[in-house]
Amino acid sequence: MGRFTLDDILAARKPRDSWWTVFMVDPLACRLALLVANHTKITPNTLTRLSMLGGFASAAAFLEGALLLGAVLFYLSFMVDCMDGKIARLKGTGTPFGLWLDYVGDRIRVVCCAFGLGFGEYTRTGDTDYMLAAVGIVVLDLFRYINGPQLKRVKEATRSLAQARMDADCVFVESVLGSRPRTEVGQLADEVEDGRKIIDLQKEFHARFPWYDRFRVFLVRRRVRTHVVSGIEFHAAVFVVAPVLGSWALVPVTIGAGTLLLAFEMSLVYRVWLAARQIPQSEPEKEKILV
């Protein structure tokens, strides 16, 4: 068996993660991951399967009206899901299939728990709002996973256009911050990186929201990513917090958390739109606008 230390596990965490994971899950998940790494031969894929089983158990508990038990099982399922990545990075045993299994397992868990919760409460009360909430949870979760890759493609296309029309030999602020995350954008003014000009495609966004960069650095120092309401926080709200509060909280918490999730997703779209506006138009495009 391995002789890993807690520091080894902590080093295997993601550089930045959701605040729910950092503060509410990792303190326990890291210590359990240390036990698994040192005293068992359990693989990351096995942990992913155990996480899926925990998700099914949570859905079954929700279906039967055991909301508190369902919330605890969902939390444990997510915690095990966090452990598999840490052990994969720690031991170097991650596989491409493991990435697929982890992704699909997360989606299956959300769908099962959403409809277990919605249908279970509907059968007990006859209130269709619970079913509508379940559908809303699934739709928002799918939208988030569709929106993310598409925004990534738009960012890549925007960078390619910027290099072609502004300065082919340049580096972008986001790339610099990726290697120096605690650096404030203002400190990069008039700097060069490896002899290349630094271009800020988020210049207009930073001008409109000057407080954002200080907020980003504040979060980075605590290993928290800036997407404060991501899918993880959304799932925690509807599958852990709301069931613990009771059935009365399921619909309002879903509406509130869903609204925040959409707001943050739209803020990402807004930032990409502002970045695209900064790229100068080519002459043919200017002529089209004038016509």
Question: What is this structure's SSE topology?
Answer:
Layout (H helix, E strand, L loop, with lengths): L5 H6 L7 H21 L4 H20 L3 H25 L4 H30 L3 H37 L4 E3 H7 L12 E2 L2 E4 L3 H6 L3 H9 L10 H15 L4 H28 L5 H8 L1
Parallel strand pairs: 1-3
Antiparallel strand pairs: 2-3
Protein name: CDP-alcohol phosphatidyltransferase-like enzyme
GO cellular component, one term: membrane
GO molecular function: phosphotransferase activity, for other substituted phosphate groups
> Spans of 5+ residues with little confidence (pLDDT < 50)?
286-291
Kindly state the number of beta strands: 3
Could you tell me the radius of gyration in angstroms? 22 Å
Instruction: Give me the side-by-side strand order of the main sheet.
Output: 1-3-2
The CATH topology is given as Four Helix Bundle (Hemerythrin (Met), subunit A)
Largest sheet: 3 strands, mixed
Helix/strand order, N-terminal first: HHHHHHEHEEHHHHH
InterPro entries: CDP-OH_P_trans, CDP-OH_PTrfase_TM_dom, CDP_ALCOHOL_P_TRANSF_CS
Pfam families: CDP-OH_P_transf
Transmembrane segments: 50-76, 224-242, 248-270
Keywords: Membrane, Transferase, Transmembrane, Transmembrane helix
What report would you give on this structure?
The chain has 291 residues and is mainly alpha-helical. It has one domain: Four Helix Bundle (Hemerythrin (Met), subunit A) (Up-down Bundle), CATH 1.20.120.1760. The chain is 73% helix and 3% strand. The chain has twelve helices and three strands. A three-stranded mixed sheet has the order 1-3-2. Helix 4 runs antiparallel to helix 10. The longest helix has 37 residues. The C terminus is likely disordered.
